[in-house]
Design brief:
The chain is mostly helical. The protein is about 90% helix and about 0% strand.
Length: about 70
């Protein structure tokens, strides 16, 4: 199963709804902790996606520069 940040955000929203409905303090706190964990995973995944895109762009630029240099020689 491929997981994306939308999945994590949906789980976080679900936990937030559960926290709002909870009548017991410990259940509400557990839901809030779970919400924060899902949000943290979504942020981490988003950072990883940005890093992969940045590295891919740098690699493409490097390959392009090397190809241009070879044409000049």
């Amino acid at each position: 199963m491929s997981v994306n940040s939308e999945y994590y955000l949906e789980r976080a929203a679900e936990c937030a709804r559960d926290a709002e409905k909870a009548t017991l303090d410990n259940v509400r706190e557990r839901c809030r902790r779970s919400e924060e964990a899902w949000l943290s995973m979504a942020r981490r995944l988003a950072r990883g996606e940005v890093m992969r895109e940045t590295l891919a762009a740098e690699k493409a630029a490097r390959v392009s520069d090397e190809a241009s240099a070879e044409e000049v020689d």
